[in-house]
Specification:
Layout: H1 3-17, H2 19-30, E1 37-40, E2 52-56, E3 62-69, H3 76-91, E4 95-101, E5 114-118, E6 124-129, E7 131-134, H4 140-144, H5 158-162, H6 164-175, H7 182-195, H8 202-211, H9 220-250, H10 255-262, H11 267-276, H12 283-287
Parallel strand pairs: 3-4, 4-7
Antiparallel strand pairs: 1-2, 2-3, 5-6
């Protein structure tokens, strides 16, 4: 299982399990009122899939579009604009896009919160504004006070990095507060073990967990993340084999074929597609494999 898969699963699991906390935190930063929230479909087109979309039924309903980034990528604001426009069309409410950069290495020069397009040397004819949360620049209390659903981000801050064991002690104490049920504390602790690997040495974090008597392998959430990540990793490997086999027989796939292949998550179907590559007549025929 790739580390990026572990991080991706962990971050999305945090949002899914604590939507109200994430909405309250992000809405307050944007100056928007919170309200009842629910997840909405993240599949925006055949080739575009947002990390998370949440509808907020405030007095004036809106949607939050969340994108998590753990590695540097130029051009992301342009793609986020596409997500934003398609999400607004599909859900008929204004959409606030939020880019959450989870470690310093994720920052790129064009992630300023504003993306502008100009024709020639004229003034911008399109301006797209989005929020940016640079996790490492925040204070630990920003995330600890936001609730257990955001508390894991506290240990990824620069403040935490200055004295990591003390930071994990504060995090552990937060999970032991009366407002955090035992099962939630266990789940969040397991997620934090995974997420801390984005910034710190895994053996060091395990040693800290041991010294603080924090939950490790007995966390059902931690085990679920590992299992899900392994499954996604096997599907990714099978997908790459299908792509290589198809390219060798039919030539480079068109963009639509790549998008269609990327959307296939069923490893067994991908294996059937790999076998079908020997007899398929082209990319369309191959992708039609049930």
């Amino acid at each position: 299982m790739s580390k990026s898969k572990e991080f991706d699963v962990s971050l999305k699991t945090l949002v899914d399990g604590h939507i109200a906390e994430w909405v309250a935190f992000l809405a307050a930063r944007a100056g928007l009122p919170p309200g009842p929230a629910r997840p909405i479909d993240t599949d925006l087109s055949a080739s575009l899939h947002a990390d998370r979309l949440i509808r907020v039924d405030a007095p004036k309903p809106f949607a939050l579009h969340l994108e998590f980034q753990s590695s540097s990528e130029l051009g992301l604001p342009a793609r986020m604009l596409c997500y934003n426009v398609l999400a607004e069309r599909a859900n008929k409410v204004p959409v606030l896009s939020v880019l959450i950069l989870v470690r310093p290495g994720a920052a790129a020069s064009d992630q300023t919160g504003v993306w502008e397009v100009s024709a020639g040397d004229g003034p911008p004819h399109l301006t797209f504004r989005y929020a940016v949360v640079r996790v490492w620049q925040e204070a630990m209390d920003t995330f600890l006070n936001a609730g257990p659903g955001l508390a894991p981000l506290a240990v990824l801050t620069d403040e935490a990095a200055g004295n990591l064991e003390a930071a994990f002690r504060r995090f552990d104490q937060r999970l032991k507060q009366p407002d955090v049920p035992a099962n939630v504390a266990e789940a969040v602790s397991g997620l934090t073990l995974v997420l801390s690997g984005m910034r710190y040495d895994e053996d060091m974090i395990r040693a800290i967990y041991g010294r603080l008597d924090m939950t490790l392998e007995d966390s059902t959430t931690y085990q679920w993340i590992l299992k899900k990540g392994r499954a996604e990793g096997r599907a990714e490997e099978a997908r790459n084999l299908v792509l290589r086999a198809g390219t060798r027989k039919f030539g480079a796939p068109p963009t639509a074929a790549v998008a269609a292949l990327d959307s296939v998550a069923d490893r067994e179907r991908l294996e059937r597609m790999l076998l079908a590559a020997f007899d398929a007549a082209g990319w369309d025929d191959l992708l039609a494999t049930p």
